[in-house]
Amino acid sequence: MDNLDERLIVLLRHNARRSVSDLAIDLGVSRATVRARMQRLESAGEIAGYTVILRAEAVGQPIRGVMMIEVGGHVADRVVATLGGFPEIATIHTTNGRWDLVVELGTATLSEFDAILRRIRLIPGITGSETSLLLATPRTTKARL
Known about the structure:
Arc Repressor Mutant, subunit A, 2 domains, 4-stranded antiparallel beta sheet, elongated
């Protein structure tokens, strides 16, 4: 991926509905170049698709948080598989440092949020956790499915 591809992706992340003509003007290249670059990036799998990004409140999850999880022993795969079964969990990340996993989750109410935290903490192999509520999301490039 070269500088032109990176600039094109920045423009598409900001607004993927822009016309090829507008993109070409901003990039200082022809429409054919923009179309060819987009097709190449799509074919290579660099661009997986175009989507609508919704506020969490719009999909019924106004209470959102990030939970850092410590896993004891060699059961991380089992813990991840169990976490994957919770519909309240949007994303599971493995990481390094003090925490083994970072989980993004959301619910409709604080009591539901409290309940899912208690259920997660009961999973065998989880030895510690810390949770932070997300208050606002000024910017995201990630779509909620």
